[in-house]
Task: inverse folding
């Protein structure tokens, strides 16, 4: 099911309400917390220095980030990835060398995310971007830690619960995933695949009737409708409603004709209805698509890890640039898009954004240069 | 303004207080002051907590061993507080057993794929003394590794009373090939179990000489199978001629020359099956004269190829012929080879609904096990998997097809975030329902660096069968709190002949874990029956024979298998939990080759040996 789901991007770019009114109080809280963090930092630093038997290479180095990192809350696993540098490093110049290791690229992404979040702590896109970087780094604990304080301030954002649900699901905690997805569903049921995700988690917990109650209603247009129908088909299969299951799987393959898993379900439903010939036909379709999937999967594992994250870093920079522009900071937007283009020259999105920016700023010559470069990239990709 | 000022002071004071509290906590922790982390740590349950606190609460030992017992057998334990009320209870006894074997994967940092899959193991009675012995395959130095002392496989003789002795050298089975799995079976029908080893390189067949020693007959028997990366291996009588044939699953076409190096998120990473091509599986026909012939093509098993791992042979459609299930790792779906009775096979996994999970997704199948979890008379199949995914329980629908019932039975509870390997559908509490044991451990020894949701060393999982639905009792049965390892193969047999099934787990790069089932020692009242078969016309071990036990309203079925779990072997002696039924009305046996017979009205709580056409020929110790 997850295969067909595209990477989620928040569909709405909203700002927190009443931010200005809360600013003085927030400054005070921030001061108090900074003071606390400083003391914690001293304590941790002292502790590390005094660990009996610790070899020098076991002590945290400057490269691992400052020692002022707050310990994880009780009962929470320590995160696998060092925290983003605080204070964030300035955005690297487009001319700066592009790192050639995964770790350096990841650190650059974390810095970009942390910088964005520090400047716009109440912007949904900022917290989402840093969360995405941590998720890519495999650190769901840190990703969740990005969202939790944001949601405490802005419980109205469905996207945060959606993300927390995804993290919980990844960790096998279906109960928590259901709790988060339900909150998100209450706030915004049309988030991509949300209905299907909630339904699937409920199915995992063998709460099939609840899953049906979630999956059956048409809550409006959302991306990934095929996934919802396929999950609905599974719920009908589970409750022996084979005709309904068949219809649901049929709808799924009508929406997405290359939906491999839906053909498998369709075949099962037909078998259960005694429609052997039709079942066989759908199983053959499944078999053909599965062979293609297998080849695609084999190609995917050959992808270069560094090239992949370099492209991701370019996407992160591009998204950060969009937020800076939306916040009326075109200079920072431009810097981020230039870096995005430098990091991954094949990514056309920052070039398009730059061309648009220069045109709007009346910088015709620079816009023309970028458009020429864009044409070159598209031509290269066409070959 | 006044209000705001007061507000400000409150926030500053609160922040300072918070900081001081945290700092004090950290300092206290560092210096080991009361209430700090170091003290809390000692409160964690340890294996010692499972040992008896006072003699008065210790039930009398009921261990019965037909041979020697050590001078000071270890005392049975009382239930720990968390075990109280849990019908399944284990205690780790590895230290007491004297088993010093430690697995090595021969790694040198180059991360060859064979290191990551490690190996299974075998439990079988090699010397016919009535005690189940243990065989641990080991790794060997791979290219670039420079071990000080070359490791070898190890055979541990069960001395009784939870003491084992390393007899590898004197028995002649201290194999130094790179071990990946093992199975045991009497291929020459001489009454002594032989040993077949799956390896990276030529495979090994040890013929049991019947005097406590073995002879390597691999080349003479013609079963070395070239120079491949092996996987699960099983003995079965494919054509019902009374001789055990050999089914050999192979993993990937790996060699030093085509080794693939990978990184994930910047850290070195073992490559996977998608990086390689595959060998077709191999079927060796037993010629009955000590030699075998490769009949892979004629039999149909070579018609397909996949990255095989754990496998199990079973008669899934009850037509009297042994079929073959092979779990494939991540590519192409699992194989189910249907046997037409003449040793000709057709792959029917997709049509039978056992190739993929309920969503039509490939499994990264690791271990394979079968057993009738719902007592409907049909053998179901359980397959372990990679993370993040659930292992799958396939319910046998009885018409040649299977259904994924993992979610409705809760058979994967607690396994989502772990890589799962060795497994057994075993009735640990003798209540007449088969429970599940799932051994866990990641293949990547550095996975924590790039994935916060899982771990290299994990706890194992025990799921108790309650009316056909599984309940996770890992924490309560004494397994969840044990030290964590990267488990691979797991075997399940009654090592102390006390009427409950114990567990041995092979841990990658470490010593194994031996778990003593404490059911009898802690006053378990349920009855059991163990059945050992002796074929006369059919193969001597009765491999493939179907056994049905009727005790009042309880009807249980099982088969004798020649390999199962993760590239392992166990359970030649069938074990049936009977609940509160103290007698068995009827035992029906259907031998491979067509014969059948029945034994009626036998007492529970004993081991019966039933010979083909002769009925009960011996009874083991009664509890």
Result:
């Amino acid at each position: 099911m997850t295969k067909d789901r595209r990477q989620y991007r928040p569909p709405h770019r909203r700002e927190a309400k009443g931010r200005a009114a809360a600013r003085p109080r927030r400054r005070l809280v921030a001061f108090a917390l900074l003071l606390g963090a400083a003391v914690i930092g001293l304590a941790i630093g002292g502790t590390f220095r005094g660990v009996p038997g610790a070899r020098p290479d076991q002590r945290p180095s400057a490269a691992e980030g400052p020692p002022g990192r707050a310990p994880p809350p009780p009962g929470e696993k320590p995160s696998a990835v060092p925290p983003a540098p605080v204070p964030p490093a300035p955005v690297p110049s487009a001319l700066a060398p592009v790192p050639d290791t995964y770790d350096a690229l990841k650190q650059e992404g974390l810095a970009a995310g942390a910088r964005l979040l520090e400047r716009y702590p109440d912007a949904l896109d900022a917290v989402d971007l840093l969360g995405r970087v941590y998720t890519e780094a495999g650190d769901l604990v840190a990703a969740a830690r990005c969202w939790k304080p944001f949601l405490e301030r802005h419980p109205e954002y469905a996207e945060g619960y959606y993300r927390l649900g995804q993290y919980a699901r990844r960790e096998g905690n279906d109960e928590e995933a259901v709790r988060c997805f339900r909150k998100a569903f209450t706030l915004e049921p049309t988030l991509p695949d949300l209905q299907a995700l909630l339904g699937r988690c409920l199915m995992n917990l063998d709460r099939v009737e609840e899953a049906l109650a979630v999956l059956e209603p048409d809550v409006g247009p959302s991306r990934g409708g095929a996934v919802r129908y396929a999950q609905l088909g599974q719920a009908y299969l589970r409750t022996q409603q084979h005709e309904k299951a068949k219809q649901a799987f049929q709808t799924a393959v009508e929406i997405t004709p290359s939906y491999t898993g839906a053909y498998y379900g369709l075949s099962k439903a037909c078998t259960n209805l005694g429609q052997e010939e039709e079942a066989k036909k759908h199983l053959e379709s499944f078999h053909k698509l599965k062979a293609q999937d297998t080849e695609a999967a084999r190609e995917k594992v050959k992808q270069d890890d560094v090239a992949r994250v370099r492209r991701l870093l370019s996407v992160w920079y591009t998204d950060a640039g969009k937020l800076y522009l939306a916040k009326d900071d075109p200079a920072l937007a431009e810097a981020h898009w230039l870096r995005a283009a430098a990091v991954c020259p094949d990514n056309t999105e920052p070039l398009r954004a730059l061309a648009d920016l220069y045109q709007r700023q009346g910088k015709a010559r620079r816009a023309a240069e970028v458009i020429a470069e864009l044409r070159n990239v598209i031509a290269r990709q066409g070959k | 303004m006044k209000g705001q000022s007061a507000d400000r002071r409150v926030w500053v004071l609160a922040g300072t207080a918070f900081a001081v509290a945290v700092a004090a906590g950290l300092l206290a922790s560092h210096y080991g002051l009361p209430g700090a982390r170091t003290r809390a740590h000692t409160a964690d349950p340890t294996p010692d907590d499972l040992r008896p606190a006072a003699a008065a609460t210790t039930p009398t030992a009921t261990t019965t061993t037909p041979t020697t017992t050590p001078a000071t057998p270890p005392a049975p334990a009382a239930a720990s507080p968390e075990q109280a009320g849990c019908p399944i209870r284990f205690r780790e006894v590895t230290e007491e057993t004297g088993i010093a074997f430690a697995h090595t994967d021969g790694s040198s940092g180059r991360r060859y794929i064979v290191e990551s899959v490690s190996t299974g193991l075998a439990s079988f009675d090699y010397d016919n003394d009535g005690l189940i012995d243990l065989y641990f395959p080991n790794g060997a130095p791979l290219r670039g590794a420079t071990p000080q002392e070359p490791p070898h496989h190890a055979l541990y003789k069960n001395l009784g009373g939870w003491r084992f002795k390393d007899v590898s050298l004197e028995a002649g089975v201290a194999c130094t090939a790179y071990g990946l799995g093992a199975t045991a079976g009497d291929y020459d029908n001489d009454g002594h179990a032989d040993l077949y080893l799956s390896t990276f390189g030529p495979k090994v067949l040890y013929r049991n000489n019947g005097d406590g020693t073995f002879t390597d007959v691999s080349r003479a028997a013609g079963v070395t199978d070239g120079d491949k990366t092996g996987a699960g291996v099983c003995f079965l009588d494919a054509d019902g001629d009374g001789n055990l044939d050999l089914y050999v699953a192979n993993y990937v076409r790996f060699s030093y020359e085509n080794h693939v190096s990978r990184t994930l998120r910047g850290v070195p990473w073992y490559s996977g099956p998608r990086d390689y091509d595959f060998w077709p599986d191999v079927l060796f026909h037993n010629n009955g004269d000590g030699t075998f012939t490769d009949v892979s093509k004629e039999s149909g098993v070579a018609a397909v190829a996949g990255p095989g791992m754990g496998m199990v042979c079973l008669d899934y459609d009850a037509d009297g012929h042994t079929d073959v299930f092979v779990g494939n790792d991540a590519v192409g779906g699992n194989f189910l080879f249907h046997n037409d009775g003449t040793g000709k096979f057709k792959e029917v996994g997709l049509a039978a609904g056992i190739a993929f999970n309920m969503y039509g997704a490939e499994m990264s199948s690791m271990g394979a096990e079968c057993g009738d979890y719902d007592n409907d008379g049909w053998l179901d199949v359980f397959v372990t998997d990679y993370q993040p995914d659930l292992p799958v329980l396939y319910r046998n629908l009885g018409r040649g097809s299977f259904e994924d019932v993992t979610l409705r039975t809760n058979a994967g509870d607690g396994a989502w975030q772990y890589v799962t390997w060795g497994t057994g559908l075993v009735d640990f509490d003798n209540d007449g329902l088969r429970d599940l044991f799932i051994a866990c451990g990641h293949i990547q020894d550095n996975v924590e660096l790039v994935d916060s949701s899982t771990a290299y060393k994990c706890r194992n999982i025990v799921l108790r069968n309650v009316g056909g639905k599984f309940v996770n009792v890992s924490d309560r049965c004494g397994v969840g709190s044990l030290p964590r390892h990267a488990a691979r193969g797991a075997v399940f047999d009654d090592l102390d002949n006390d009427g409950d099934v114990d567990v041995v787990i092979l841990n990658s790069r470490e010593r194994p874990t031996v778990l003593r089932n404490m059911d009898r020692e802690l006053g378990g009242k349920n009855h059991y029956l163990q059945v050992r078969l002796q074929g006369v016309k059919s193969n001597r071990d009765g491999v493939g024979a179907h056994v049905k036990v009727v005790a009042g309203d309880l009807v249980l079925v099982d088969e004798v298998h020649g390999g199962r779990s993760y590239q392992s072997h166990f359970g030649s002696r069938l074990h049936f939990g009977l609940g509160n039924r103290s007698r068995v009305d009827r035992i029906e046996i259907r031998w491979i080759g067509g014969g059948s017979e029945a034994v009626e009205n036998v007492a529970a709580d004993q081991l019966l040996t039933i010979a083909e056409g002769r009925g009960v020929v011996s009874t083991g110790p009664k509890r």
About this structure: Chain A is about 65% helix and 0% strand.
